[in-house]
Amino acid sequence: MHYVSTRNGDVRAHFREVVLSGPAADGGLYVPAHLPVISPEEIASWSWLPFDELVWRVIAPFVGDAIDDQRLRALLSDSYKGFTHRAITPLQQIGHNEWILQLFHGPTRTSKDFAAQLQARLVSHFLEACGGEALVVGATNGDTGIAAIEAFASRPNVRLAILYPRNEIPADRLAVLQAADPASVQLLPVDGSFDDCQTLVARLFRAWPLDGLIPVCFNSTNWVGVLAQIVFYFHAALQLGGGTRPVGFSVPAASFAEIYAGFIAQKMGLPINQVIVSTNSNDALHRFIHRNRYTPHASQRTSSPAMDFSLYSNLERFIWELYGRSGSSVAALMEHFEACGELSIGNAQWLQARVLFDSYAVDESEVRREVLRLRDDAGIIVDPHTAVGALAGRTHRRSLGAPMVTLGQIAPIKSAALLAQLGVWDAEVASPPRLHDGPPGLRRGDLDGLCKALQAAQSRRV
């Protein structure tokens, strides 16, 4: 298996290079040159497999000969040892043929643990082989950075640098970030939005300032962020229909990686009949799916903060697929997008996307009503992100005969304060955490300041 850039099919990379990287050198994202296709009979034969064996069956074709099978099995199995539920991703029924796939039983109680735990082990494996050191860099509006710290902070030959929007991150998440060991984690607040943080990270990788340190991105621009999540779809479909019955999914848009992973799973042969892109009032992605017009804009604060942004880097991978894997077409589209801040694709490509994808934007009043409805009608408590997905799934499912699965990305306890306000959380809510001011914030778009901050931290270590 080798990988190419979404903007240039002549760029070739081995799986090791893809793991130890961020975006490709030309600004595109790495994608597999071809996808493994699995027969319906083979998929059906996987229905009895334990989770770690299923993970190996799905992921091994993307790794190829980069890691021998015995070592890969061990790395994959070890990635889930910190999960607290024996099923890893249990299904919970919430209505007639409606389910939540609980993805929050990892160490930090969010779905971000799947990618972070796997990536940390793969990065460590390849660093050990080459004797190198890495700076793992990324942007977070809360949970992604926390998952990266949990996975990477104790790894040898690895340091973390985390950019976050100074005034847009929930206080409880910020407290966890600030508690990280500064010897291994460098926090870099940005006086801007999460989208500004993502843009700075992308620019940093194009102008890497630190010789001797391998740059790795912990966001899902790194292919591992997608790869780890393809398994979700196989696991749910096998549990609900043995891999032969069509299944629909509603995905709260806290990342396009999970949405794109569903598309990849269908291309591999899984019978997915619908993917609903579920957004909160920050609806840039909904407007792209619904109207073929993508225009990132300033985000609003909501009760589902993991979705409070509008810049989705993995959308580029999806567009590459829609354009028949044409790097030149994607390069032209992305050049226009980066210059003008808006994107529309060809009508044929948009109609192709709509064969699988629907979307729905859920406003704040609907989110709160759905949390209460699920408490009253199903006797369960969900966090607001999951409520967004559940409402969209119930409202816009195409078939009552096909199971509809909402990806439950965040444990309810992580939204305890809001749930207590709604009267659905009985546990005593902790008092607000104490925070400190942190270092001065980087100005929006200040690549030079970011490079200097990283160089200064490296100089202190040396």
UniProtKB/TrEMBL annotation:
InterPro entries: Thr_synth_N (IPR029144), Thr_synth_N_sf (IPR037158), Thr_synthase-like (IPR004450), Threonine_Synthase (IPR051166), TrpB-like_PALP (IPR001926), TrpB-like_PALP_sf (IPR036052). Residues 2-80 form the Threonine synthase N-terminal domain. GO terms for molecular function: threonine synthase activity. Keywords: Lyase, Pyridoxal phosphate. Its cofactor is pyridoxal 5'-phosphate. Belongs to the threonine synthase family. This is Threonine synthase. It comes from Pseudomonas reidholzensis.
